[in-house]
Amino acid sequence: MMLEKGLEERTFYLNLGPQHPSTHGVLRIVLEMDGEFIVTADPVIGYGHRAHEKMAELRTYQQYLPNMGRVDYLHALAYNQCYCMAVEKLAGITVPERAEFIRVITSELNRISSHLLWFGAYLLDLGAFTPFLYCFDDREQILDLLDRLTGSRLTYCFYRFGGVPVDIDDDFIAGCRAFSQRLRSRWDDYDNLVTKNVIFIHRTRDVGILPPEMALQYGVTGPTLRGSGIPYDIRKSEPFSVYPLFDFEIPIGERGDVMDRYLVRLQEMEQSLRIIEQALDKLPNGPIMAEKVPKRLKPPEGEVYTAVETARGEFGIYLVSKGDVKPYRVKLRVPCFSNLSVLPELIKDTMVADAVAILGSIDLVIPEIDR
Amino acid sequence: MQFFLAEGARLGLGLIGVISLVAVNALFLIWMERKVSAHIQLRPGPMEVGFHGALQTIADALKLIGKELITPEDVDKLIYLLAPIVMFLPVLVSFLVIPFSPTLLIRDLNVGVLLIFAFSTLTVLAILMAGWASNNKYSLLGAIRSVAQNVAYEIPLLLTAMSIILMAGSFQPSVIVSQQAKVWNIFVQPLAFLLFIICGTAETNRAPFDIPEAESELVAGFHTEYSGMRFAIFFLAEYTNMFIVSAVATIFFLGGWHGPFLPPVVWFLLKVYALIFLMMWFRWTFPRLRFDQLITFAWKILIPLALLNLIVTAFVLKLVR
Does the ipTM exceed 0.95? Predict the structure, then answer.
């Protein structure tokens, strides 16, 4: 696709970001351009660095919990869950089954809301304005449900060490069922108006192909990896919480292009709905908090790694305790950092418009990369 | 002497009429765009200022007038300042020959159609000037795209226009309209109408062909560095261009002022605004094409189709007459 460079032709540099409509945050990508084509791309990160890992060393285990909702604000509950799981594993706390069910239901709802937001924002990147508001209309239902339960709409801090603080009631269950019905009735609209749109297909088919080998080399996870045809999902590969109890599939793509990543996310929403419905059906009775969780938590010396599947990929926490009230060290393994690292390879030799389409298809949350 | 006085008065009145029409039309279209997009997107749109937000655009225009006019460093000052004017003036000229009704037209030139096309092409020059002078890479990329796009889409636009002119045997807008008293051209030339609307949308840089100002790629394209009223003039020109393209399409295909019961000028405006609504509908429901796909679409699909249409029209006319 590249033109051969003549004597007089020179490349120039174009700054995509840190303030740009398509980076969805303060990400800067330095593009070396040959006309409309990109020769090299160099992501520059760190504009939103908030020292989350260092903060963990200065706060008690409980005090650090609210930070988790702010690493990735779009799928905050999965981060909550991962951190709680790490501390529980370290301190030897067993979570009651009902609490695990509530965690799964709320986390999957949160996953759908994250994917819906991605869907709308991605089409905005491609120049379609309207789907964004339809997605927000759907997403609003989830936010209302979670708002009533958790008290917040975005940066949730809902799980506690040993369970959840609030039980779900019949209204919430009825709301969940109504929502899943409503969203299912929307699939046809999304399919007919967006997925089958000729312009959309032209913009996404065979654009930004990520070969499975390259994805593995860069440590790409989440829908971006599954779009390339590798069925790696922590919920199945290394099951945590009560996920093994549910029957759901891991959607994968075939070609690894932008379209496949898009389809994987759409199908994942449907699978999340299935998980939620099964969880509501099987919801056991019982306590929602483990007994005797000390107010002043002092886990024994040791180290632990837990991982969950977030909307963007594998999120892991490596936690080291020296038997103090504060963690000795917390390392966050965030999916977007690895997913971003593959971007320069993907947008080489493409046009700016494709670069935007590819950047969006990776679904980055910039504060998560910077941590 | 008397002839010149009468003509002068006619021209003066015409200019005042055109300028007020342009201003009112732009205010109305921006409000309409907001309302149309809002209702497509499940929201009410502006509701606060005036009845259903009718005065919202006036409030926004006042805000824009109050804004500081920023001239960035290292711009090519003369060209930077001239660009909005070059953008806007040709748009005004086109109004001179648009027949709103059999009597309501300023100048019934026998090359009226040619004049409209000649002057509407000048907007490309203004976009190129704005992009070049702004000393901004996004502006420059937007300007380059715009020139490539306008050159590509001008050709099928003129080719389809030619087939209509062949049928009418005249470049005079009023003649083209009066020949459609019985049958509108859209029923005779449906393909030409389709091509004309597509090219017209591209000519006015509207979505899905809004590549020159693709906001998710080029921030704001060629007018990234313009603020306040200078930006507003680009905005005004875009909406007035929409009106002109729709007016030309109405003259060519929808029988201009013809229609039962209502006065001719009402029919004309109704048809124009219906076409503008169609263009707004496009914008709020389609994603954007990629730059190379857009050019390929013009050269490989639209131009051959337009040529074919022209040749078939010529043949049929030869056989009939």
Answer: no
